Amino acid sequence: MMVVIDGHIITRFTGHTIAFNKCTDDQFHHLDGDGDGVLSRNDLRGRFDWLLALDYDPESDEKDLEDERKREGVADSIFDRFDADRSGTIDREEFRLMIMELMLAIARGIGNTPVSVLVEEDSLVMKAYEHEMERIEHDLLAKEEEEARSYHDNGKGKLKKRRSGIWALCACSTSGKYLGDTN
To answer: What contacts 8, CB < 8 A, 6 or more positions away?
Structure first.
């Protein structure tokens, strides 16, 4: 799927702990093929492209052995960097830290300029995009609700705009003299 994304979208996603942890936990579970609660090198090899959705096509007939070796080398380097306890595996917390750092590196690489990118539907970059769209929708709905609350019925079936949180109430005496606004 083609999406327009910038570095701020990814940064906001990584900063939203609940959403970010849920997505990384889902990805961790998907990668943990044997269900042992840790990721081995083999669990990660060949899957980093999919995980981050960067030009990944597992069904491609044009597999280049040199490219495959480069990808495995990158996966091994990343694995070594984030296996903090040197256990030979990456646990869930190490995985979260790894994904956080990788996503922030992508955000820095993209920068502030929106770019169109092709992403996998289940990738973390796509999850960041979806999170941003939900945030925008939430903000728009909140703004619409606030705007709707800024009007009140003046008792004659007409809506009157409220000013700065103070209800504008025009009170007139029987002589038609204006008595002013009240709180």
So the answer is: 107, 112
